[in-house]
Amino acid sequence: MSHTPQPLGAPVVRREGRDKVTGAARYSAERNLPGCLYAWPVPATVARGRVTAIRTDDARALPGVRAVLTHENAPRTEEPDDPILAVLQDDRVPHRGWQIALVVADTLEGARAGAAALHITYETAPHDVLLTEDHPGLRTPQTANGGYPAVRERGDFDRAFAAAPVRIDATYTLGALHNHPMEPHASTAHWSPDGHLTLYDSGQGATTVRDSLATVFGLRPDQVTVVSEHVGGGFGSKGTPRPQAVLAAMAALHTGHPVELAMPRRHMAAVVGHRAPTVQRVRLGAEADGTLTSVAHEVVTHTSTVKEFVEQAAVPARVMYGSAHSRTVHRVTALDVPSPSWMRAPGEAPGMYALESALDELASELGIDPVELRLRNDPSDEPDSGKPFSSRGLAACLREGAARFGWHDRDPRPAIRREGALLLGTGVASATYPVYISASHASAHAAADGSYRIAVNATDIGTGARTVLAQIAASVLATPVENVTVDIGNSELPDAPLAGGSSGTASWGWSVHKAATELVRQLGERTGPLPDGGVTATADTGSETAAESPYARHAFGAQFAEVAVDSRTGEVRVRRMLGVFAAGRILNSRTARSQFVGGMTMGLGMALTEGSTMDPVFGDFTESDLASYHVPSCADAVGIEAHWIDEEDPHLNPMGSKGIGEIGIVGAAAAIGNAVRHATGARLRTLPLTPDRLLPHLP
Asked: Sign (positive/negative) of CA torsion 231, 228, 444, 481?
């Protein structure tokens, strides 16, 4: 049977799909190494203080317990590049859940029993864990996450806002949110007799983990191998090494055996990062025709005392809508809480919820259709930088989405549509996400039998990276995609950046495209058959990706939602969601649609079900497992459709692609919140929109 090359954009089935559904795909805690031991971490049970004693006799006496590591006997490590990796090095407890011991045993059950048998005493200190918009510790940092300036001002916002004939001044509050990937954070560590560390790790970037572990253990990078063959989701929480990687390596070094450590899910909220809570004040000033004259987005958030992470939630307001006068500010306070970190579309997801909700409030105040209001304020240049957009498909997404959704048939009056006790409403919101691209290395090999092999240390966290990279290579090599093998997920392969910031495919794909192009050139210069060893070409995109673009590069989208609110119970059901996106060239229609729908589903959870409560007495998140932290089920995620416009953008990379992994969540929560307001007439500014919050506002 003959095959033709699969063009980019074709719905090629993901390569690892069968392995995953049949159980052949092996994850980091499924290596079954000979003589492997199992570890169970022990979290601190006080909100702040220090450990004064850990009595280990009872734990050591249990059958099968091999070791108990504490700050008194754990291997000493070097100062890490990330302070959260400095585990078991001293007696401090910066927050509840900080790991203070590790029990290693022949079985997982034995390690867990040993952890329960420890006797720990503490010296406690006063703690402060609650974020408020007027917290006395608030300060303005130099930068927010991603290196963005914490403050940007343009024009004279105060004067323009005071003079605006129509004004919105609203504050939106979001609690903490948590990454809960299906596969918990896990590592299996093994030291060879020559001192080489091999770590099987559930991480979003094996190169990054390798370099961090080399720093921690005082090794050269070539003395560490990290394998992340299959990763069961991460959503940002696996973007950097987490303590389980260091703890597993410590335990393996201490015992002389391979050690497996899978993070218990109830421990994860305290050690793998979270989306920090935010209090966001948005002020919009507009003319009577809807033209924005002034925009202010001021964000208050928390970080930990261990490290600083400032959610960049005000940054999207610098991109979305033109106005002559603008103020965007981030303020932060360090609390005795776990360190926040990346969670899918950090900055954009919470920031666009507030901004797009405020736009909806402005549309209601003006009596202008919410889609039309956004179209009237669609700039040709990026407001913050003044750069022209490389492409900006927002208007096209809004128009196509409105047509597909049947938007213009709606009655704009709130609380009008009913089906018995159900109140029906529709909402819209815009979405944006920046284009990030990092330097990457790759190799392309042509074998004597006519097949090809691509090598790049990419990571597939469920996005279909293997498949899309094969398509990119096949398109350059003019060969069927089945003729291309792709090796990823091992730090022995050419160095590559992590899977994060919706930058993976663009970064890895550029290096794969460059290597394949060079291979084609080399093959074109040859005559006769290839040597037995074949021919290999390598590529490094450092120079290309280092060059600053004269364009502002962003993906855009439009989100539409229809909800039914039960006036008797306060329950909200999303009947249908529609997303239309402008993300450059779509490289695989099957995996892209899956990414968009997955992001929208996560946005549905953000709007309606997901929330974490900080216990002020104990200093921890009360919703610490999937029984209490409610992610959407299949029954919740019905009628979700994703489409995209054909967008050609020559200013991105050789594929013309933008990232798609995160833009699906951006705007989704706002669209649902706006639909709930249209259904009920009630504007709630705190998520999630749970029945207890809605009921007091319903007829």
From this structure: negative
What's the pLDDT band for 1 if we cut at 50, 70, 90? very low
Local structure of residue 85 (DSSP, 8 states) = G
| DSSP string across 145-194 | GGG-BSEEEES-HHHHHHH-SEEEEEEEEE-BB----SSPPEEEEEE-TT
Give tens-digit pLDDT for 390-424.
Answer: 999 999 999 999 999 999 999 999 999 999 999 99
Using alpha carbons, list the distances in angstroms from residue 226 to 247, 451, 491, 511, 673. Answer: 15, 27, 5, 21, 42
Rg, C-alpha atoms of the chain: 26
Beta bridge pairs of residue 260: 38, 188
pLDDT of residue 636: 94
Token match 């306060």: residue?
570
User: Among the options 229, 260, 298, 662, which is catalytic?
Assistant: 662
Confidence (pLDDT) at 699: 81
Neighbours of 536 (CB within 10 A): 16
Q: Where are the alpha helices (DSSP H) in 171-312?
A: 206-216, 243-255, 265-271
Residue 319 CA: distances (Å) to CA of 309, 328, 384, 388, 649? 22, 11, 6, 11, 18
Backbone angles phi and psi of 491, in degrees to 5: -70, -5
User: Is 562 a residue of the active site?
Assistant: no
The CA-atom distances, in angstroms, between 307 and each of 81, 84, 338, 689 are: 11, 8, 9, 31
Closest CA to 342 of 125, 535, 503: 503
Distance, in Å, from the CA atom of 179 to the CA atom of 268, rounded to the nearest integer, reads 9
* Mean of pLDDT values over 501-530: 96
Q: What is the pTM of this model?
A: 0.96
CA distance 684 to 350: 15
Measured CA to CA, the distance from residue 405 to residue 671 in angstroms comes to: 13
| Rounded mean pLDDT, 168-174 | 98
